[in-house]
What does this fold into?
Amino acid sequence: MKLLVTGTAGFIGFHMARRLLSEGMDVTGLDNMNDYYDVSLKEARNRILENEYEGYVLHRIDLADAESMQKLFEEGNFDYVIHLAAQAGVRYSIDNPRAYIDSNIVGFLNILEGCRNNGVKHLVYASSSSVYGMNTQIPFSVHDNVDHPVSLYAASKKSNELMAHVYSHLYDIPSTGLRFFTVYGPWGRPDMAYYMFTNSILKDEKIKVFNYGDMERDFTYIDDIVEGIYRIVWKIPASTDNWDDIHPDPGSSSAPYRVYNIGNNQPVGLMDFIHVIEELLGKDANMEFLPMQPGDVLTTYADIDDLSTAVGYSPDTSIEEGLEKFIEWYKAYHRS
It folds into this structure.
């Protein structure tokens, strides 16, 4: 069994690779080590994978490099692909749109072509809760329409789902998209709110609280995310029984294609989230209240019934437990 995991120097990819390697599997990693955030953090993650596990090798390749991607797939002969690399960030997409087209659209096409031409048994890829966009019906369900994104990042992820469906339909490539809901935890991304809040509170700096704190997020701890991904990799989708082409269901297909929400199913108010961080740090935050930012949404809330039914997914990490583990890691990593 051979697995390709993209984004292994990134947050979720790093943890996913560790899980697979700890199970004794061989993992080929891919990451371009871009400077969207501190490259030293990415290098630190990668050192752990290289130094602590046999059976891991990293290829420093850009997803948009079609020739290098073709060669990687031809030489790798992968059975399964877990595609977690992407240009992340909703707000960053406002000012840097081309980065999202290059990585999330062109790069994903190269992933699909690699799967098509090299007999990959199952492609699992990262989508995002951002695809729900202007949809205000909660909890968010994969059976709801998601045709009104509010950021280019969200549009790129919706495009990934559409592209995957085409390849599943035309070439019979089993594909599963996972819509992640605000993932947090140790070794996380410095551009995420919980990381920035912790950093600023410890440094006695102001934290920016958007929409004056009136927001909710379905914060999901990294271990729960990894468990869900691990289970779904082996759940190869098939055509939906009794497919209704008059009233098509967005969450399934006549092709071997599925989309699932993967979240905590328990949205938390932003102010409550901040208060937990304050209590764990033993320090009060100096808050700067600001209006809603372009591309943001008020609430995210994952309906995870389909994923629970498919693979028994049941996240069990509380916000208090998850943030405590993150802060413990943060202090050790930054020596603060």
User: Anything to note?
Assistant: The longest strand covers residues 122-128.
